[in-house]
Amino acid sequence: MVPSTGPFEWASTPFTMIATPKHVQNLSDTKTDEYVEAASSMAVFHNLLLRSLNTIYLQAPHVKDGDKKAFVGYAYCWYDAIDAHHTGEEQEFFPWIEEAAGEKGIMDANVEQHKIFEKGIKEYGSYLRSLKGKEKTFSGDHMRSIINSFGPPLHQHLSDEIPSLLALRKYGDKIHLNELWDKQSIGKFTLHSAATRIPFYLCNLDRTFEDGLWKDFPEVPKLAKDFMGNWVARLNGGYWKFGACTMTGVPKELYAKGK
Ligand SMILES: [Fe+2]
């Protein structure tokens, strides 16, 4: 594990970041292969999920009444992101991998792990939905207790999935892992994702992680990134101050914190 570091108390705990294979193996762009690339992309995305979960865990007890509605909306973006990620894996990415490998069940261990924390994540989503219209009753302690119920097995799963992707190398040219990663519909632009998922991702992607190795992740033209960060993020604009980073991926101090 390589914890992200910041110059201040930051979103690097309680769930620590996962080192990417590309960084661990110290590979340049010319030496890497698509298994390392895809497993590393997955690790960067998993870190986004862990880092943003940390922002929710750390800030939940300190949110002032006037900010609770925005915080509940922000925290729900995490539910939306993890739900879309795991649904995408189960319905698209993993079946495509098995089809390409010509072997059924090789991704079953990952799907089985999803079941371990599914109940806790569902409870997280339904608690936030139950607050609609009465967001001021949001309890940071209750939010933390729900996260405590699924956080450790979720962290384990997000870590374990990386070597499981690297292990697919034994199938050689049969699987084009990077192409399958790019093909997932989760990455496609929709109105819903523009107003919630994309700004949520942008303000939780640490572009300084692993000495800036991922500063251009994902590969989207700079103009499009700027448009997202500057304009699209104005939708639900009250949410993103709770993010771990600025819209350009620079770590920032948490907005809601204790004394
Ligand atoms: Fe994953």
Automatic annotation (TrEMBL):
PANTHER family: EXPRESSED PROTEIN, HEMERYTHRIN-LIKE DOMAIN-CONTAINING PROTEIN. It holds the Pfam family Hemerythrin. Residues 45-161 form the Hemerythrin-like domain. This is Hemerythrin-like domain-containing protein. It comes from the Eukaryota. InterPro entries: Dimeric_xanthone_biosynth (IPR053206), Hemerythrin-like (IPR012312).
